[in-house]
Structure formats: structure tokens, C-alpha cells
Specification:
This protein is mainly α. It contains nine helices and no strands. The protein has one domain. The relative contact order is 0.14.
Length: about 260
């Protein structure tokens, strides 16, 4: 039986699991190596193993965020392409919004603009119609920005703290290695190389976790900026369309009702 993963989160989990399975499989093959990660784990105490688990959790979380956010950005880029080809060809804003996918942020923005025109009454009528629509569309755009920014703070945290977590593991490992050497009374190179080398692996692991997180953070930040530019352009054009519909409706007092009627036509 074949299992299909349709959601971006599920596909991201599968990709992360594959990334984690590769080093685990090779670690089993290199279990006889007395100076490898496997030997480090077997000879470590609770503190050193906790550091390794923290770094593993940081790595898994970073790759999950990177994979899922890239998939989300590609999905929004696809929605932007569809909006540019189908939305503006519709006769009304409401008809154009209906042609967009339910999960499209561009549909959310269009529906927010329509809702703003319908609710421009009562106390809201004291606000200029132009400012009211602009405020509503700005809030809708900010919601898209907040959704795109989810997870970036985690990548920044991992990128800035993982080297120090690995360094802490190295210091802890060297301390115990030197203590063991002192108790043994021997300081030959064959006695020092193994324990100290295993401790230095902690620093390498910390850097191996931090570098992808930093690169992923910068990459996603640039991609988010490009995606948000398309969202803001759509919002600005929609703002102009709604104002044009309100001008055709007549007086500012009836602007909201006029735009709503035009959208429903």
C-alpha cells in the first residue's frame, strides 16, 4: 500500500526523517570506530549525552522549519501566479476572489477588502473610506507576514546558540578526559588523542547544526521579502480598485454600500 503525503508539514517531516536516518545508518556501520560519534555516546555521562540530544533536537527542528517554510513559500508563489492570471480578469472583486483557492492569502486579502467596504458604516463611517480600506488591507497583509515569519526566530536562536552548546560539551569532555588521564598517571599521545578528540567532536557538531540554521534563516528571509512584495503589490492594486468602485458609487457616505453592490453584481 502506498501512502500519500499531501500536506507541506507531512512532506517536511518525511524529509527531516530521511536526513536524520542517513547519519544514523552510517553510525551503525562505523560502530567499531573507537574515535567516532558512537564511541563518544557510549563513553559519555549524562551531561555530555544531554548536549548531544540538544544538538540533535536543534538540528531536527531547524531542518523541519527550513523544509516546511520553503514549501510554504513555493505554495504562496503559486497562489500569486494564479492571482495575477485569474483574479484581475474577473468582472468583480467578489468573482475574482471566488476563483482563488480557499487557502490562498490573496483570497484572504480580497475578502478582507470586500468586508471593509460592507462594514464602512456606523462609527466606522467617521473614518475616511480611503483610510479605512487601507487599514483593513494592511492588517490582512500583516497576517501573511506573520505567518511567513513563524519559525525564523527558532532558526536565529539555533544559529547563535548551537556553537556555544557544542563548546560547552567540548569543555566538559576535555575536563573529564584530563581527569581520567591524571588518575591513570599516563599522558602519552595515544592516551590523550582519543578522549580529547571525542570531546572536540562536540564543537564540530555544534557548528554543523548552526551553519545550516544560519544559511536557512538568511535564505528564508530573502525569499519572504520577495513573496511579501508580491502580496503588497496585490494589496495596493486591490486598494485602487476598491477606491475606483467607491468613486463610481457616488458620495463617500454610500461608498461602502456601492462597492459591496458592485462586488456582488
Amino acid at each position: 500500500m502506498t501512502t500519500t503525503f499531501s500536506s507541506p508539514s507531512a512532506r517536511g517531516l518525511v524529509a527531516v526523517a530521511a536526513l536524520l536516518a542517513w547519519p544514523l545508518a552510517h553510525a551503525q556501520g562505523g560502530a567499531d570506530n573507537p574515535y567516532g560519534v558512537g564511541a563518544l555516546w557510549q563513553g559519555s555521562d549524562v551531561v555530555a549525552r544531554s548536549v548531544l540530544l540538544i544538538l540533535a533536537a536543534f538540528s531536527a527542528g531547524s531542518w523541519y522549519v527550513i523544509v516546511t517554510k520553503v514549501l510554504e513559500q513555493f505554495r504562496i508563489a503559486g497562489h500569486a501566479k494564479k492571482a495575477s492570471t485569474t483574479f484581475w480578469d474577473a468582472g468583480t472583486v467578489q468573482a475574482g476572489a471566488g476563483k482563488l483557492h480557499e487557502t490562498s492569502p490573496f483570497r484572504d486579502i480580497a475578502e478582507a477588502g470586500l468586508d471593509a467596504t460592507r462594514r464602512h458604516g456606523g462609527l466606522h463611517a467617521k473614518v475616511d473610506f480611503n483610510d479605512w480600506v487601507d487599514l483593513t488591507l494592511h492588517r490582512a497583509t500583516e497576517r501573511v507576514q506573520r505567518r511567513l515569519s513563524v519559525g525564523l526566530s527558532f532558526l536565529a536562536t539555533v544559529g547563535s546558540t548551537s556553537p556555544f552548546v557544542g563548546l560547552f560539551g567540548t569543555v566538559w569532555g576535555i575536563y573529564h578526559a584530563l581527569t581520567a588521564i591524571g588518575l591513570a598517571g599516563q599522558a602519552s599521545i595515544d592516551k590523550v588523542a582519543g578522549p580529547v578528540g571525542e570531546a572536540l567532536i562536540m564543537t564540530a557538531l555544534g557548528l554543523a547544526v548552526a551553519v545550516p540554521a544560519v544559511l536557512g534563516y538568511n535564505f528564508l528571509l530573502r525569499r519572504n521579502s520577495a513573496v511579501l512584495d508580491e502580496v503588497r503589490d496585490f494589496s495596493s492594486e486591490l486598494h485602487a480598485v476598491l477606491l475606483g468602485s467607491s468613486a463610481a458609487a457616488g458620495s463617500p457616505a454610500n461608498a461602502g454600500a456601492g462597492v459591496a453592490a458592485t462586488a456582488a453584481a
